[in-house]
Amino acid sequence: MATPVVTKTAWKLQEIVAHASNVSSLVLGKASGRLLATGGDDCRVNLWSINKPNCIMSLTGHTSPVESVRLNTPEELIVAGSQSGSIRVWDLEAAKKVVHSLKSQMLVVHKWSQWKEEALPHSCPLQGPEPSVLSPVLRTLMGHKANICSLDFHPYGEFVASGSQDTNIKLWDIRRKGCVFRYRGHSQAVRCLRFSPDGKWLASAADDHTVKLWDLTAGKMMSEFPGHTGPVNVVEFHPNEYLLASGSSDRTIRFWDLEKFQVVSCIEGEPGPVRSVLFNPDGCCLYSGCQDSLRVYGWEPERCFDVVLVNWGKVADLAICNDQLIGVAFSQSSVSSYVVDLTRVTRTGTVAPDPMQDSRPPAQQPPHPSAPLRRIYERPSATGSEPQRVKQNSESERRSPSSEDDRDERESRAEIQNAEDYNEIFQPKNSISRTPPRRSEPFPAPPEDDMATAKEAAKPSPATDVQFPVPKLEVLSRPPVVTSTPAPKAESPIIPATRNEPIGLKASDFLPAVKIPQQAELVDEDAMSQIRKGHDTMCVVLTSRHKNLDTVRAVWTTGDIKTSVDSAVAINDLSVVVDLLNIVNQKASLWKLDLCTTILPQIEKLLQSNYVQTGCTSLKLILQRFLPLITDILAAPPTVGVDISREERLHKCRVCYKQLRSISGLVKSKSGLSGRHGSAFRELHLLMASLD
User: Fold this and answer.
1) Of 5, 174, 214, 464, which is the most buried if we count CB atoms within 10 A?
2) Peptide bond into 436 cis (omega under 30)
3) 8 near 308, Cβ under 8 Å?
């Protein structure tokens, strides 16, 4: 019998509605792989236990959407950054104590009020404050002027690093409640921050296409890693060696040697922008969460060990626990979690395995070479043995706590939504109290489905093999799991009763013949006419759009970009302009100053239409590429004599400057919006600050 077609184990674990509004950020606890924190446009931070349907804790206090969250390594602290630039740090252990004491405190407050009313006369007021409810928030950190895009906890010291859309990186002492140091060097939003495993360095990735490495002790930049041609979304340190990985929207992953400060290798051809990467705990490979797939890479030389199909869309974060990789993705208000069985994933070697695998038990992975190619991080022997040394600002630059911050912290609350799940995560039953429990069972394989049952029943298999197939959507993409427990032998052979008629007889022989009219085969024209029924208006719109695009394409083939744009604008159809801009935006070298004079009036229309995203992208490209040139030319003193080319360039700059001034008011009025569009408008407002 032929071997069934199976691939790697990967399945969807659950899908939950995480917030009342859109989810804007999330993070997995890396130590346990079981704790999930989500931030939403409802200004809340919710905590979840993976594979549990109910929220176990909800943290409030922010007054604007939460756009970045992060858990520390022991999963005892959580930090969240908001759209307004404020940062809040919660102590989950303190929150546990506060919430557990709420019932007793509420009872005390109730009895206090009741006793005052009954025991004391109204003319004799009681002196002293009433009992109050404690707040679980540890710190409120203020200082950034725009959205918080990235956060990270120091692995040993009590520090938090924050990166913002204002291009600044700040290091905070969460116990002393102040900014320790500010790192400047990026020219656009800082999208990702990571501390090195030994806690001495900080890596940052930004929209300016660069990765920077900062020395915390010296308080300065050690090295800058150029090479990406798009915004860098994520950076990750190797767990042992002096190696750094970075993923970008240019669909590449680059590996950087932190001893020689040079690129080691570059992996190209990712199916989409790289948003999430994670090293294996032993450092043998790198996992990349791609669009609907997990890819496993090596870097010396660069190669792909394996590809696992996972229908998780755009995965947002990854974690590893019990030889399982957990991935989470969000869309609007929903969050979905997925599991990949790493025992069936090739993590070392030089050649990616054949997807046609048999149903044998997972083979042991080859041991990783014990001798590293690079220097290894020297971690402290104990976390409290020596405090982390970092460069600090002067006392005048450090912000002291204010009464307003104290009031904000008192207004923060921790609400337990589900006590059973909360106790399971934060109150383990073992003797050592630990949050969350470090040892947890792997997620069980999904139950057997009917289709897989029929296939397995149709083939003879040894009695000792017990098969657990995958869900219906992935029957052909998951290998069976074999256990060492023998299945009980049947006393007698069982014939599956799949027939509904006597053996040897055909029921059709005893029934009158029924003539089934054969349906005439549809030709393409008839099929298209049936599809178009009820869509006449849309067909007219699409036909007109296609005709207009053909006109623009005929001019485009001549190589005159400016004339092509002029023809698209003359058609007076924004959809045609959008289609053309989506092509021009992919190649910045096509942009010229005279092109800006034609496009800017159209961008102003796009920002007030349904094509906001395309308008923001085009305006951002113009500001980054031409605004410094425009301001420099306008500020230059007049020259002696006649220079025709300079006069033409000066005229174009004046036209562009006037149009940008007109657009800046519109951008400023829309910078208060929430969600993705609001974030884009705030970034544009920062870029246009020099126009004010």
Assistant:
1) 214
2) yes
3) yes
pLDDT score recorded for residue 149: 93
Assign 3-state DSSP to the chain and report helix, strand, coil percentages, each to 5.
Answer: 30, 25, 45
Taking residues 27-50, what's their average pLDDT? Answer: 89
Q: What is the mean pLDDT of residues 265-271?
A: 88
| pLDDT exceeds cutoff 50 at 432 | no
Non-local CB neighbours of 658 within 8 Å, separated by 6+ positions: none
Q: What is the per-residue pLDDT across 582-632, written as a single tens digit (0 to 9) for each?
A: 888 887 778 888 888 888 999 989 888 888 888 898 898 888 888 888 888
Average pLDDT over residues 233-240: 94
Decide if 480 contacts 498 (C-beta within 8 A). no
Structure tokens, 382: 């104990």
What is the reported pLDDT for 131?
36
| Distance in angstroms (rounded) separating the CA atoms of residues 407 and 315 | 37
For residue 75, how far is the Cα from the chain centroid?
19
DSSP per-residue string spanning 528-571: HHHHHTT-HHHHHHHHHHHHHHHHHHHHHTTT-HHHHHHHHHHT
Helix (H) or strand (E) holding 663: helix 644-670
SS3 150: strand
Distance CA(45)–CA(64), nearest Å, equals: 12
User: Backbone phi, then psi, for 528, in 5-degree steps?
Assistant: -65, -35
Residue 74 to residue 56: CA distance in whole angstroms: 18
**340-375 burial string, b = 16+ CB within 10 Å, else e?**
bbbbbbbbbeeeeeeeebeeeebeebeeeeeeeeee
Q: Are 246 and 254 in contact (CB under 8 A)?
A: yes
Note whether 267 and 302 are within 8 A (CB). yes
Phi, psi of 615 (to 5 degrees): -65, -40
Q: What phi, psi does 652 have (nearest 5°)? A: -65, -40
User: Residue 212: which of 228, 372, 272 has the closest Cα?
Assistant: 228
**Residue whose C-alpha is closest to residue 53's, from 65, 40, 39, 36:** 36
Task: Give the number of other CB atoms < 10 A from CB of residue 471.
Answer: 17
The label of the residue with tokens 């600002």 reads 393
- CA dihedral (435, 439, 442, 444) positive or negative: negative
- Whether 78 has a pLDDT exceeding 50, the answer reads yes
Q: Which residues of 111-145 are buried (b: 16+ CB within 10 A; e: fewer)?
A: eeeeeeeeeeeeeeeeeeeeeeeebbbbbbbebbe
CA distances from 23 to 69, 97, 239, 335 (A): 12, 28, 30, 8
Pairing of strands 201-206, 159-164: unpaired
Q: pLDDT band at 400, cuts 50/70/90?
A: very low
Token pair of 537, please? 């208006």
